[in-house]
Amino acid sequence: MSARRPSRTADNGGEPTSVIPHPPLPPEDDEVVVGDQVVAAAAPAARQKRRRPAFGSYMDTDLQRRFKARCVIEGIEMQDALAEAVTLWLDRRQDSDQQASQLAN
User: What are the φ/ψ torsions at residue 89 (nearest 5 degrees)?
Assistant: First the structure.
């Protein structure tokens, strides 16, 4: 029978381990946030949800992918961007209708 190897323990068998010194903290404390300030700084401002009726449509897959990606880049919800796009489209149509009626008179 061979001799058993001594097992290792968390404190390394009572032998002192070398201590690696950490660099001192910077003297500026302007950016240090403690207590309730941490929660307030980390929590995003709550946005009020608007109740909107459901709206469904179909569009080209590539167009939807580009639309979704742009919304993510802009940091806005797709429904907000879609509402803006529809509003602009309606405004442009209304302007062209007014111009056509003025030309007819």
Answer: -65, -45
Phi-psi region of 67 (alpha: psi -120 to 50; beta: other; left: phi over 0): alpha
Q: What is the pTM of this model?
A: 0.47
For 8, the token pair is: 């290792």
**What confidence tens digit (pLDDT) does each residue in 24-55 have?**
766 666 665 666 665 565 556 666 777 888 88
Distance CA 97, CA 48 (A): 36
Each as own residue / partner, the long-range contacts of residues 23-32 (CB below 8 Å, 24 or more positions apart, any chain) are none
Rounded CA-CA distance 10/45 in Å is 45
Q: Report the sign of the C-alpha dihedral through residues 91, 96, 97, 101, in that order.
A: positive
From the number of C-beta atoms within 10 Å of its C-beta (0-12, 13-18, 19+), residue 40 rates as: exposed
